[in-house]
Amino acid sequence: MASKKNINAGMVGMGMIFDETYRPFFESAHKDGLYDRQFGDVSVNLSAVATRTGSRAEKYQAIAGGKVHPFESFAGDDAVDQMLQSGIDLACVATPDDRHYEASKKVLEAGKHLIVEKPSVLTMQQLDELVTLAEEKNVLAKVVYHKLLDPDHKKLRTLYADNILSHVNSGYCTLLEPKLISGSQFSEWITGRNPGTYVAVHYIKLIDFSFPGKLKTVMATGQRGIVAEKDSNTWDSCQLRMIYEYDSGREAAFDIHTSWVTPDNFPGYVEQEVQFRFDNGLWNGHSRKRGVECTVEDKTPITMKNSINNHYNGSFLEPWGERSQRGYGIEVIERFAREVSYVEHGGEDSERANRLNEMNQLDYNNLSADRQTVAVVQALEAILEKQAQGIPDTVVRINDSNGGLVLYTPGSSDHEVLYDGEV
Ligand SMILES: NC(=O)c1ccc[n+]([C@@H]2O[C@H](COP(=O)([O-])OP(=O)(O)OC[C@H]3O[C@@H](n4cnc5c(N)ncnc54)[C@H](O)[C@@H]3O)[C@@H](O)[C@H]2O)c1
Fold first, then answer.
1. Domain endpoint, select from 254, 285, 311
2. Domain count within the chain
3. Which residue lies with its CA nearest to atom 15 of ligand 1?
4. Which CATH number goes with the domain that contains 301?
5. Residue 267: inside a domain
6. Whose CA is nearest to atom 21 of ligand 1?
7. CA–CA distance, 43 with 9 (Å, rounded to integer)
8. What residues are paired with 273 via a beta bridge?
């Protein structure tokens, strides 16, 4: 029996991440609905999509059959505006990084709940605007950081929160993407972009959320010459350092190395490794080497990879015969749909403001809690841009006497205020 409670969803951008996480979520929601004792049985429908050309939407419609709710497809310059007028309750924004802000702003202005891919936006100024808009319109504004839902990272955070691992001193993370990403997948929008904003941001958030402290300093450097000219502002790889200060007055430093020029015949989809050092312990994690290594003649490591991350997103034949696609990459989208269902259907209308407030307290995905992560992204982008202009080794300090985000150049007494409010 169909539920009388509906949440209609819109989708902006239907690229790789739509296919990996949103599509399987909407297909499973269409089949099984969403149930919770607090909000009952809710139908979550993908009802409209907005893309640049409409071709990916058409392709999906052609193969989806009855697997997903029938949806309207809008294309062209005013696609997002049309989608927003089509009677949706929430919108997911999965456009390239530097196009999140524009679409997200429209979503919130239209009074729709928002979930945007990481990094939410590229500047503190944009973040301030979106957070203010969400407050004015009484809707949720959330961002996807699925690594926070990885069971290994949940365990790390739990051990730290419970003080079994005490005071983090330093750490490193690395995430290397294949050349395929920079060479073909993102070739349309890669000019002027870097792999740090795209993937280091996962670890920036993991550190910021798991080891809560005050961000003090951001440093970075990068390499060029494979994806584009060596003097351009398009980056092959970059290295980021963040320094945090904790309530005790003690500091910690974290290095995050990223690239999108790893050979395509690398045995895993991506290389992901972390090490965190504490006063009383050490955490070593390797998301690719979690245990499975599989070789298939004529397939691995090109069309299929040797080491498979079955936790993020996998297709399975379940023991009970069903085919499924699941993992924490999909769970994170479902959580957001549950949060919206709770706000809209979790009780009396007169209590909606309380439910909204409750969901706004969830720092793992709320835009208002994304401040230090966005600050690092803005600093990284500014430092790389200076390097591309021939001014290497600049440093960004956070909340010092000159402003919230302030860029300093070695050998110069000048400084540049990137953001004057408090981060
Ligand atoms: N959570 C994750 O681990 C993860 C993984 C990959 C990508 N992402 C994020 O998802 C976003 C999209 O990445 P992707 O890999 O799907 O990229 P993609 O290039 O495969 O797809 C981008 C899509 O956006 C559409 N698009 C571009 N400009 C648009 C506009 N102005 N209006 C409407 N649609 C527009 C494109 O046509 C395409 O369908 C990025 O922000 C990326 O950081 C997240």
1. 311
2. 2
3. 16
4. 3.30.360.10
5. yes
6. 15
7. 10
8. 174, 286
| Closest residue by CA, ligand 1 atom 28 | 95
What is the rounded end-to-end Cα distance, in angstroms, of the chain? Answer: 49
Tokens linked to 140: 């949720």
Q: Say if ligand 1 is within 6 A of residue 12 CB.
A: yes
Q: Give the position, in ligand 1's atom list, of the atom nearest the Cα of 186.
A: 19
Task: Tell whether 141 and 199 lie within a shared domain.
Answer: no
Task: Give yes or no for residue 146 CB within 6 A of ligand 1.
Answer: yes
Range of the domain at 86: 5-145+321-360
Q: Which two tokens stand for residue 286?
A: 């390797």
Verify whether ligand 1 is closer than 6 Å to residue 292 (CB atom): no
Q: Report how far residue 388's alpha carbon sits from residue 350's, in angstroms, rounded to the nearest whole number.
A: 54
The residue contributing the CA closest to ligand 1 atom 38 is 15
Angle at 246 between CA 382 and CA 381, to 5 degrees: 10
pTM of the model: 0.96
Ligand 1 pocket test target in 17, 122, 328 with most atoms within 8 Å of CB = 17
Q: Are residues 114 and 131 in the same domain?
A: yes
- 305/296 Cα distance (integer angstroms): 9
Q: 51 in ligand 1 pocket by Cβ < 6 Å?
A: yes
CATH of the domain at 121: 3.40.50.720
99 pocket-lining for ligand 1 (C-beta < 6 Å): yes
Separation of CA 400 from chain center: 28
| pLDDT of the chain, 423 residues: tens digit per residue | 555 899 999 999 999 999 999 999 999 999 999 999 999 999 999 999 999 999 999 999 999 989 999 999 999 999 999 999 999 999 999 999 999 999 999 999 999 999 999 999 999 999 999 999 999 999 999 999 999 999 999 999 999 999 999 999 999 999 999 999 998 888 888 999 999 999 999 999 999 999 999 999 999 999 999 999 999 999 999 999 999 999 999 999 999 999 999 999 999 999 999 999 999 999 999 988 887 899 999 999 999 999 988 899 999 999 999 999 999 999 999 999 999 999 999 999 999 999 999 999 999 999 999 999 999 999 999 999 999 999 999 999 999 999 999 999 999 999 999 999 999
Angle 248-254-258 (CA atoms, 0-180°, nearest 5)?
A: 160
Nearest CA to ligand 1 atom 27: 95
